[in-house]
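ingest -> validate -> predict -> emit
validate: passed (alphabet ok, no gaps, 469 aa)
predict: started
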Amino acid sequence: MSQRKNRRQFLGQTTALGAGVWLGTSVQSQTYASALQAPSAACIGVGGKGSSDTSHIAEQGVAVVGLCDVDKQSLGKKAVEFPDAQQFQDYREMLDKMGDKVDIVTVSTPDHNHACAAMMAMKLKKHVYCQKPLTWSMKEARLLRETAEKMGVITQMGNQGTSENGLREAVEVIQAGTIGQVREVHVWTNRPIWPQGAGRPAGEDPVPEGLNWDAWIGPAPMRPFKENVYHAFNWRGWIDFGTGALGDMACHTTNMPVKALKLWDPIAVTAVKNSGIVDSEQYPSSSTLKFEFPEREGLAATDFYWYDGGNLPPDEILEQLPESFQKRIADVRAGKVQRKTSGAVVVGTEGMIFSPDDYGARYDLIRNGVVTKDFEKPAQSLPRIPFEGGTDERQKWEFVKTITGEYEHGTMSNFGYAGRLTETMLVGILALRGETGKRYEWDAVNLKCTNAPEINQFAAREYREGWTL
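emit:
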């Protein structure tokens, strides 16, 4: 065995340990002997966001050898870019046939298929990149992070902001105590931008030629196809398939405060406002949630508020934001613009951190309602991504170079982190499915509501026959 190979194996192993995964005798001890020996990938879901995920991973030197999409039209478009890749419409078939030919699997499907696809890949000891939220349910998220640790594979969830240096700097500023003790966090989103708050339409339409509807439904309960209702975009608002505005954006917009303040395992959640779920079909058109976090590792007990569908934090918070941002909010309220705002505010005893960026990549330090530019930044405690490029490209660089052993710090949004983040945010889904104003007490260790056991049925679900973890 060459000295170069020994060093690369060592780098791969220390990287995995830094990412918080257990190695044992897993695939990670068989990493790449040469940078010229490119890893190969099979990509699940290659339309929409999956199209860029596939392209960006290839840009980092990965050989894309398998393409899977339930829609032949999306599959054909991507095959133009990767003409030598084998094509499939069912990821189970692709992984059965190509499991010994690939090193990486990307998962860019609707939320309800994430867990089955990622779990199947990890059981084959493949490194996995999975879009956010990591899973449709809390129990799936727990199982995925446990499996990633057991198998010793490199993993990453697609909340791209985690790979932005600006987010990492904001985390350092908060953790250094620059804004004092934090007891309150407010995060809001411009979502939903798809239909929510209605019931299921009557009737059915013919399944389009080339669409594998059975594979699209996957582990969810079967239902008739309706044109432009579920596939290819509006699935996010449907309870059986997506996780609504909260699931779509919380893994992005809460990422910075969660990382900075260790906002794991809430002890309670309340739907302060909830426009209502109709017939257990679609998420509410708007909501406001309150998560309660106890004292943890020397940090004060913290209340975290989530707003969607046009709901916003109290005026006493908004009035301290930069004037340009306040004007944007005023224009939305006056009907001058349609695009709602997104933002995150971390409120401390000595100031606040405000990010107008969905990814948390930009931030302002605000004291007494004034943006403060000349403050001393703390010493760097988190690694920086040396790759110059767009947010998506930076995250794919971090993932691939961790696999090849060329980046020693590991993926920050590995399933150990991403699984906990997803679990935490999805507790809010339980409150949306319960009574407005009711405080649901949460046992995060056992994934159970202790004061309303009837809500626990929504922490997981039975899969349709043929689909399993």
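The chain has a mean pLDDT of 92.
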